[in-house]
Design a protein that fits this description.
Blueprint: H1 7-11, E1 27-28, H2 40-47, H3 51-54, H4 63-73, E2 80-83, H5 86-97, E3 104-105, H6 113-120, E4 125-126, E5 147-151, H7 163-172, E6 177-181, E7 202-207, E8 220-223, H8 226-239, H9 246-257, H10 259-282, E9 286-287, E10 294-298, H11 304-313, E11 316-317, E12 319-320, E13 330-333, H12 337-352
Parallel strand pairs: 1-11, 3-4, 3-5, 5-6, 6-7
Antiparallel strand pairs: 2-8, 7-8, 9-10, 10-13, 12-13
Helix pairs in contact: 2-9, 4-9, 5-6, 5-8, 10-12
């Protein structure tokens, strides 16, 4: 520890990303990456950037990308904010909309960056527990919240709320900013984007890392009324006006325009998820009804760390989180069919060997 650390650096507990192995010997199912390559049109767009263009700063407003997104979602560009991945968008919305004297809330089991950001900006937070079935009971949240963050589908459970439930929440809590984090929405959920015109207390956050295979380029999006977007822009321009580079902007446009690739790959992931969930249930696993690109499961009576280590020893990386309630649960990203077949084969052998 450096003697030059601030009190903040000395006290925070940073987010821990999933393992990124340096070799290729693993089936990598631990970071919710898309198993399919990015659109060929997006790849072509990446290669289209010239040396002359690379020497210039990118458009700080990402105007062409925002127009593409606006056309796709039937919105206006001023209702859209683009950042360097959805994590950056989330990081900027905390200081944009919440003060250290405000109270915000998010579930006790959810995306683990939320408590990191709350601690980083000194914003007090409540974490009402999920129900026994890991669903979110919105009646557990007090009325006097400044902000309410919901990952929908939730992470790491994959369980989703319907749009009607989100709309009822918005109507009941008009003085609360409701942030709906839709990182996994394209794998079976209902987006809340159509609600932003009628609810000025809604901010929807999405990413191009999952369903559009652009995790390596870092493109995140927020959708909300223009006043909310201006708040995000004010924070961004107080840090760095050029957060989305020219390569990422151009590839993102092409990825959104390639609807056929998007539909084909996301439907393939959904089909593989459902098939694998069914097979794991047949082996005795408890599996949540995921609407994301991952499965959340546990083998009753067997420590999660034991199953995780067995898979790792046999060349498969999966994610396990701390906390008493989910310590024995594994989050398994949906890979290609052959990769998921190998996971099922290994787990079937694990169960048959009497380890379960």
């Amino acid at each position: 520890m450096s003697r030059f650390y601030s009190d903040l650096v000395s006290s925070i507990s940073p987010y821990v990303p999933g393992e990124q192995p340096k070799d290729r010997r693993f089936i990598k199912l631990n970071t919710n990456e898309n198993p399919y390559p990015a659109s060929s049109r997006a790849v072509a767009a990446i290669h289209s950037v010239t040396g002359l263009e690379a020497r210039l700063y990118p458009d700080p407003q990402a105007s062409l990308l925002r127009q593409t997104l606006a056309d796709y979602h039937r919105l206006k560009p001023e209702e859209i904010f683009v950042g360097n991945g959805s994590d950056e968008v989330l990081a900027m919305l905390f200081p944009a909309f919440f003060n250290p004297r405000d109270l915000i809330a998010f579930p006790d089991i959810t995306y683990s960056f939320y408590p990191v950001y709350a601690a980083l900006y000194g914003i007090p937070s409540l974490t009402p527990p999920l129900a026994a079935d890991f669903s979110i009971d919105l009646d557990d949240y007090p009325q006097d919240l400044r902000g309410l963050l919901l990952a929908n589908p939730n992470a790491p459970t994959g369980i989703a709320k319907g749009r009607d439930e989100i709309e009822a929440l918005l109507r009941k809590r008009r003085d609360t900013l409701v942030v709906v984090d839709e990182a996994y929405i394209d794998f079976g959920g209902e987006s809340a984007i159509p609600l932003i015109r009628s609810h000025d207390n809604l901010l929807v956050v999405q990413t191009m890392s999952k369903s559009r295979s652009l995790a390596g380029l870092r493109v995140g999006i927020a959708f909300g009324n223009p006043a909310l977007i201006k708040g995000l822009e004010a924070i961004r321009d107080s840090f760095n006006s050029y957060t989305v580079d020219v390569v990422a902007q151009r590839a993102a446009i092409a990825a959104y325009e390639d609807i056929e690739h998007f539909e084909t790959t996301r439907q393939a992931i959904i089909a593989t998820r459902e098939r694998t969930s069914h097979r794991l249930a047949e082996l005795g696993f408890n599996v949540t009804p995921s609407r994301a690109n991952f499965i959340f499961c546990t083998l009753p009576g067997v420590p999660g760390i034991e199953v995780q280590q067995y898979l790792r020893d046999n060349g498969v990386l999966v994610r396990r989180f701390g906390g008493e309630r989910i310590n024995d649960w594994l989050r398994i990203t949906i890979g290609r069919d052959d990769e998921m077949d190998e996971v099922v084969r290994l787990l079937a052998a694990f169960v048959a060997a009497g380890r379960a």
